[in-house]
Amino acid sequence: PMSQNKWMEDREGYVANLKHLAKDDPTEYARIVEGKWVKQQVGQGIFKEFFMESTHVKGNAAKGQRFVPQPNFPITVGYDLGDVNNGVALMQQVPLKDKTVWVQLDEIATIGKKITLQSFVRIILSKINEVVMRGAEVKGLTAQQARRQFTVEHISDNSSLRFRAAGGDIEKNLIEELSAEELRNNPDVYPYVADPIVMAPAPKGDGSVEQRVRLLIDLLQNNRYLVDSGCKNSVDMFLNIVAKKDSIFAPQGRSPYKHILDAITYPILYYSVNGTPAPRTERVEPMVYA
Length: 290
What we know:
Blueprint: H1 11-21, H2 26-32, H3 53-56, E1 57-58, E2 75-80, E3 86-95, E4 100-110, H4 117-139, H5 143-149, E5 152-157, H6 171-185, E6 199-202, H7 208-221, E7 225-228, H8 232-240, E8 243-244, E9 247-251, H9 258-274
Parallel strand pairs: 1-7, 2-5, 4-7, 5-6
Antiparallel strand pairs: 2-3, 3-4, 8-9
């Protein structure tokens, strides 16, 4: 233990540096900060030490208390799309007095269900329409006003640019075309949705999974990620997803929770690289519940 080190120079600075280096790793923190020789845990809950329902889950969906998106700040939709497993997270970065907080407004998760891309596009547009309408009703905006004040950005991983096995269409372009057609043919179904789904790719390479998990852990530690209580799949992911044997920051490959984790963390990585988009107004509305 450091308390037994009689020759330590600049103890305060040294300890602060150790805590910073080990802040994302409970095992390493116990070893180099607390002086405990603990085993490296395997198969442990990735967010076990960092996610607290009482702190990070807000609202009461059963009573209709849901997070409300703030106008003039982009709503970000993160995607992890596959043939049978899909995760989608609708989020918003909201600047408060002393920090910017990621607020997860809603989610879509379909695991083990084969859904046509056209059907899934309709599900996504319906969810965006629902979330924007939630904000518009609280703020007293018409559908036309809401379409101007609530912009939507779409972030996926590079694999969304791949050629699909069936048909050979580029998935990104196909989603854009299908969503544009759906909005054009059924404007009354999606009155609060202004634009089709145009995806931007999050960087993805060696170590990107661990990097994204570390970024999310950092947000949780600093109370900068909040989840609406209606996002049951996301809450279950935080509580139950476990790590690989050889990496405490990478989920097991066949985990059913991996898809919603990816959907949440692709936008976080994207904006950490590209910077947070500037609001269209300097006036910040307080976060409220519907």
